[in-house]
């Protein structure tokens, strides 16, 4: 316990804890809807678009604006565009998202190589870094995370409706396209906020893993969301502590902890299903 207290006495660890817990909460809440609606690849595409925008902003070195602030509107626009392609595009959604995401990643790497080079900042955008968060980044993370959490709570019932049965939601007068756009907007904000810590290559794991893990043992939407939020925060804090103790990359450590949690709860869910099936037979 003394070691943990000492660890979190460092300012950069305090920033990482605050920012990471907020991002984990936002990602876990949105992840359930994204997984159920099969929009998980949109999150992956947005993370790559975000990296491209961050790399261009770093190369341009624009005064009075941070790379994260520069990336926000670009990723938000990309979220709407990717959602539109996924719903109505001539290309199949996953193919179109793959084209856009890999293109954005390639542009970002090329711009970085031709200007600032693959320096520490660029690597932190790719793979994440707990020491990359500045005071300005932390304040921006808190503000955007608050926006995401408040909007999710306000539109919870509508998000629930379009997640489970979009056709029925439309029939009851709910503007499903609007709420799909809101989900895409909140996802874009979450990804931009979390990229400096998790990196564009790993941020999607915060969206997918907690949702999949909670679905192994929970079967109601609200229960899945609550359990997803808890498991996401616990896995983040565990991964953060392990990365500090063993000097391993933070983003990768958090993903590994999430993977272990998923495997454990998948096993628990499988055993529970077998027991239920036997009881039903009897």
Detailed description of the structure:
The structure is a single chain. By secondary structure, the protein is an all-alpha fold. Helices cover 84% and strands 0% of the residues. The chain has a single domain, classed as ABC transporter involved in vitamin B12 uptake, BtuC, CATH 1.10.3470. It has 13 helices and no strands.
Question: What are the salient characteristics of this protein?
Answer:
single chain, 282 residues, mainly alpha, ABC transporter involved in vitamin B12 uptake, BtuC, 84% helix, globular
Q: At the third CATH level, what is the topology name?
A: ABC transporter involved in vitamin B12 uptake, BtuC
CA-based shape: globular
Compute the number of structural domains: 1
Q: What's the main sheet like? A: none
E-strand count: 0
Proportion of strand residues: under 5%
The CATH architecture: Orthogonal Bundle
Cα(first) to Cα(last) distance is 49 Å
CATH homologous superfamily designation = ABC transporter involved in vitamin B12 uptake, BtuC
Q: What is the CA-based Rg, rounded? A: 19 Å
Question: What class would the helix/strand composition place it in?
Answer: mainly alpha
Total number of helical segments? 13
What percentage of residues falls in helices of 4 or more residues?
A: over 70%
Q: In terms of per-residue confidence, which ranges show pLDDT below 50 for 5 or more consecutive residues?
A: none
What is the averaged pLDDT score? 82
What is the N-to-C order of secondary-structure elements (H for helix, E for strand)? HHHHHHHHHHHHH
For the record, the CATH class is Mainly Alpha
């Amino acid at each position: 316990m003394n070691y943990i207290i000492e660890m979190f006495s460092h300012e950069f660890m305090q920033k990482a804890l605050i920012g990471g817990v907020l991002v984990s909460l936002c990602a876990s809440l949105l992840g359930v809807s994204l997984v159920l609606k099969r929009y998980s690849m949109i999150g992956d595409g947005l993370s790559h678009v975000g990296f491209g925008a961050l790399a261009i902003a770093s190369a341009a070195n624009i005064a009075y604006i941070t790379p994260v602030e520069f990336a926000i509107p670009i990723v938000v626009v990309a979220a709407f565009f990717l959602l539109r392609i996924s719903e109505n595009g001539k290309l199949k959604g996953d193919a179109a998202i793959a084209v856009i995401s890999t293109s954005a990643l390639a542009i970002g790497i090329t711009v970085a190589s031709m200007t600032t080079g693959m320096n520490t900042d660029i690597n932190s955008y790719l793979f994440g870094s707990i020491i990359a968060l500045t005071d300005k980044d932390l304040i921006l993370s808190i503000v955007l995370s608050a926006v995401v959490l408040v909007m999710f709570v306000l539109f919870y019932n509508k998000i629930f409706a379009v997640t489970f049965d979009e056709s029925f939601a439309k029939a009851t007068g709910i503007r499903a396209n609007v709420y799909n756009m809101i989900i895409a907007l909140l996802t874009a904000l979450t990804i931009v906020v979390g990229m400096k810590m998790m990196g564009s290559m790993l941020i999607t794991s915060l969206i997918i893993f907690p949702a999949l893990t909670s679905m192994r043992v929970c079967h109601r939407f609200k229960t899945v969301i609550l359990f997803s939020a808890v498991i996401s925060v616990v896995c983040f804090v565990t991964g953060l502590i392990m990365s500090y103790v063993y000097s391993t990359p933070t983003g990768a450590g958090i993903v590994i902890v999430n993977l272990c949690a998923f495997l454990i709860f998948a096993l628990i869910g499988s055993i529970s299903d077998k027991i239920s099936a036997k009881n039903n037979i009897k």
